[in-house]
Amino acid sequence: MWRSRVSNPDFRDFSSDMAIEERIDLEETLLPSLNPSRPRPDFDWNQSSAHVKSFKITIRTLQLDHSEKWWSFASWTVGFLMILVIPILRLIFLKPADDKSNHQLVFQPIVVVVGILISGVSFIFLSQSMRKYGIQGILHLDIAAEETAQIREEYNKIIQRGAIQLAKLFFPALVLYVLQKCWFYINIPLASLPHLNSKVANVVIISVLVGISWIFQTTTFLYSCVLFWKVCFLQELKMKLFKDLLLQRYDPEFYFNKYASIIKCLRSTSRRFRSFLALTGLITVFSALASMYEVVVHRSGTSIFMSGELLVLNIVNLTGIGVCLKSASKIAHLHRRIVKEASSMHAKATFAASKGYLLTPGKDQGFEFQEKVEQFCQAQDAWSRRSALVNFLTNNSAGISVYGFVLDRFFVHTSVGAILTTVWFFLGRSLTN
Predict the structure, then answer these.
(1) Residues forming a β-bridge with 406
(2) Residue ranges in the chain whose pLDDT is less than 70
(3) pLDDT number for residue 83
(4) For residues 162 and 367, what is the distance between their CA atoms, to the nearest angstrom?
(5) What confidence tens digit (pLDDT) does each residue in 366-417 have?
(6) Rounded to 5 degrees, what angle do the CA atoms 16, 19, 24 make?
(7) 88, 113 Cβ separation under 8 angstroms
(8) Distance of alpha carbon 405 from alpha carbon 401, whole angstroms
(9) d(C-alpha 380, C-alpha 400), whole Å
(10) Where are the alpha helices (DSSP H) in 247-366?
C-alpha cells in the first residue's frame, strides 16, 4: 500500500517548500535499491568542468559563440557572409557557360532560398538563446544541478557527446555533397567570373566559397537540432527516474511535487524551442514539396544528376527535423508509461486495502469496531490522495509542445499522413499537366 501521512505518523512530509538537498538525498538513497548492481556514482557537479569547456570549444569552432562581445561580433560577421552574402553572389555569378537545356541550373534558386531560410532561422535562434540564457541556461545546467548524481553523470556524458552526434549527422551528408559537386564541376562548364580568365582558378574559387557556405549553413542547422536533443535527453532521464521512484510507493504528494517540476521544465523547454521547431518544420515541408514539384516539372529536359544538391538539401533538413521529432516523441511516450504505471499502482493498492475492512457492527464491538473504522478512514484518505495523483498525471499532457501541438507519435503520424496526401495531389496534377 502507498504510505500515507495518516497511517504512518513517522512519514516525512515532502511538501513544496522541502529543501532541494533533502529531496536529492532521498532519491539518491532510493536509487541503489532500484538497481543494486549499479554502484552509486561519485560525480561532483561543477559548471566550469570539462563538459562546459567542450561545449564552448564546439560552438566557437562552429563560429556560434555569442557569450562574449568579441565572439558575438565574429559570429555575426561570419554568419552574414556564409548565410546571406555568398549564396546571393552564387545566384548572380554561378551560371553555365552554354545554353544547353540539360546544363541549366534550374534547381539553384530553391536550393539557395531554402538554405538561407533554414540556416538563418537556426543562427538567429542560437544567437538569441546564447545572449538571453547563456551557456548555463541553454544547457539547463541550473535544472540539472538540482538532480541526483546519477542524472548529472549521464547528462554530462550527453553534453560531451554533442560534437560526436553532430559529426554522425554531418559527415554522411558531406560525402553526398562532395560526390555531387565533383560530378557537377566535371560535367557542367561554368561561365567565368568577372576579371578572371583561368578556368581552373574559376572552379577553385567557386567550389571553395560555395563549399564553406554550405558547411556553415548545414552545421548551424544540425547543431541546433543536436542542442534540442541534449535538452530532451535531460528530461528523459528525469522521467525515467520518476518512473523508477513510483515502485517505492511513497507518499503521492512527493510524486506530485516532483512531477510538477518536470512539467515546468518541459514548458520552459517548449517556450525556448517552439519558434525554431515551428519555422524549421514549415521550411522543411515547403522544401520537400517545392523540390518534388520542380523535379516533376523539369523531368524531361534536365539530367537527374542536376537535382543532386536538391536531394542533399532535403536529406539534411529531414535528418535534423527527424532528430527533433524523435526526441520530443520519446518524452510524450514516457509520460504515457508513467500514467500507466501510476494507474496500476493505484488499482493494486486499492484492491489490497479493500480486504479486511468489512464493517460488521453486530460482531465487532467496542474497541475493535472503532479501530476498523479508523483503518477504513485511513484507507479512504490514502485512496483519495492516490486518485488525485493519477488524475493529475492523466490530465497533464507532459511533452514538448509547439503553439499548443504536443509533439508525440500521434502528431508525427498525422503530419506524415497529411504530407503524403499533399504529395500525391501534387504528383497527380503535375503528371497530368
Answers:
(1) 401
(2) 1-51, 101-103, 300-305, 353-376, 378-379, 429-433
(3) 92
(4) 66
(5) 556 666 666 667 667 777 788 888 888 888 777 888 888 888 888 888 888 8
(6) 105
(7) no
(8) 5
(9) 35
(10) 252-297, 308-354
Cβ 252 vs Cβ 2: under 8 Å: yes
* Centroid of chain to Cα 90: 33
CA 65 – CA 70 distance, rounded (Å) = 9
Buried b (16+ CB within 10 A) or exposed e, 385-404: bbeebbebbeeeebbbbbee
Q: What's the DSSP call for residue 46? A: -
Q: Is the dihedral of CA 358, 359, 363, 366 positive or negative?
A: positive
DSSP 48: T
Give the C-alpha separation, 3 to 7, whole Å.
7
Q: How far is the C-alpha of 177 from the C-alpha of 383, rounded, in Å? A: 61
Three-state DSSP class for 38?
A: coil
Please report where in the chains the cell 518541459 appears, as a residue: 266
152-183 CB burial, b ≥16 within 10 A, e <16: bebbbebbbbbbebbeebbeebbebbeebbee
| 295 CA to centre of own chain | 31
12: three-class secondary structure by DSSP = coil
> What is the chain's percent helix, strand, coil content, to nearest 5?
75, 0, 25
Cα–Cα distance, 399 to 174 (Å, whole number): 33
Q: From the centroid of its chain, how far is CA 101? A: 43
Q: Which residue has the cell 501541438?
A: 405
CA distance 265 to 2: 27
**Is the Cα dihedral 343, 349, 352, 354 positive or negative?**
negative
What whole-number distance in Å separates Cα of residue 86 and Cα of residue 113? 12
Alpha carbons 156 and 140: distance in angstroms, whole number? 12
pLDDT tens digits, 63-107: 777 777 788 888 889 989 999 999 999 988 888 777 775 667 788
What CA–CA distance (Å, rounded) separates 209 from 318? 25
How many angstroms separate the CA atoms of 161 and 55, rounded? 9
Look up cell 498525471; give the residue. 393
Which three-class secondary structure state does DSSP give residue 193?
coil
**Phi-psi group of 47: left, alpha or beta (phi > 0 → left; psi -120 to 50 → alpha; rest → beta):** alpha
Query: Could you give the CA distance from residue 282 to residue 269 in angstroms, rounded to a whole number?
Result: 20
Do residues 294 and 199 make contact, with C-beta atoms less than 8 angstroms apart? no
Residue 102, exposed/middle/buried by CB under 10 A (0-12, 13-18, 19+)?
middle
